[in-house]
Amino acid sequence: MSSSASNGNGKKADGKKADTPQWVSLAAGSTAGAVEAAATYPFEFAKTRVQLSGGKLPRNPFQVVGDVYKQEGFRALYKGCSTLVVGSIFKDGIRFLSFDSIRNAFKDRESDTLTPARSLLAGMAAGVVASFTAVTPTERLKTALIDDAARTSMGQPATFRSPYDAVITLIRRDGFVQGLYRGWEGTTLKQAGATAARLGSYNIIKDAEKGFGIQQSTPITFLNGAAAGTITVYTTQPFDTLKTRGQSAKGASVVDAFQSIIKTSGVRGFWRGSVMRLSRVVWSGGM
User: Fold this and answer.
1) Which of 185, 77, 179 is nearest to 137 (CA)?
2) pLDDT category, 2, cuts 50, 70, 90?
3) Is the pTM of this model over 0.85?
């Protein structure tokens, strides 16, 4: 019998814990991503509306959600949700699979561990892969649908009848790459930057707590995650705002989106929607 075979209790014959099957990682990541995306979508919807408004909407996410509910109905709050859910399923599944593969390729074979630096690089690489394969196209569709719904609420004719119609219309109008991958620069920078900021800040916080003799517990872990999430949101928000402006229904280049933000809101405009995004991060962390 091979020394690496499993002994039936989740460990290999040499005593090391057996690697988690990739299909388990895929199922776990996809399910968690779909539930989190659907449950927190109103915050994502509010964030996108605020970023596209150019400073015309309030910063309070609950007020934005309440106003949309009163004026456009409950269904309006979930405009574009299906595309985000589908994207989250693929994104988290891909990140689980790619991170496991990269981690296994870089970890030390003798100690079966991964250094913090290599773990960070593995996470960033997984985020970049997810951006190109799933996040950018679905974010483009979600943003375009939300923007189109906002224009429709103001009396303008609808551009898209459904998510499928949005795909066909964008490809016919702009081509496959420009139609579905507009805003990929901001999306990819956000994905890689978020991974680096979250893992980096989380590890720094844990090391500081260890120095002060603070014991780890469920509440402490949750607070650490919330703190790391806050740092992540505010350090990567400019990338998120830039990609949202570029992925509107009409679409815009990175340069045009940048100039539009500066013109309508100034430098502070790059952090527009931070409160909404932070609310979603905290809420999903609690889940």
Assistant:
1) 179
2) very low
3) no
